[in-house]
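Design request, tokens follow.
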């Protein structure tokens, strides 16, 4: 086994892993700065907030009872 090839392989691995580590460290640093900048900008330019919609239930009418009766009749006819 050639020791020189093994040394070159380890050197290449260390350079590659160092490059990835360096890139990730810079990315995390930039993301933290971006987060702080967005907090500051949000004070001066707040996002618009949607109004909450209030849903009310329909009052039960005779029409609902007729629909329920029709559904029951359809099921009963299907089974027989």
């Amino acid at each position: 086994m050639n020791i020189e090839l093994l040394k070159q392989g380890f050197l290449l691995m260390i350079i590659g892993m160092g490059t990835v580590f360096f890139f990730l460290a810079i990315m995390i640093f930039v993301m933290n700065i971006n987060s702080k900048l967005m907090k500051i900008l949000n004070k001066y330019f707040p996002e618009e907030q949607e109004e909450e919609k209030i849903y009310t239930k329909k009052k039960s009418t005779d029409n609902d009872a007729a629909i329920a009766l029709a559904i029951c009749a359809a099921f009963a006819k299907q089974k027989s």
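Comment from the thread starter after seeing the answer: thanks! Residues 1-46 form one domain.
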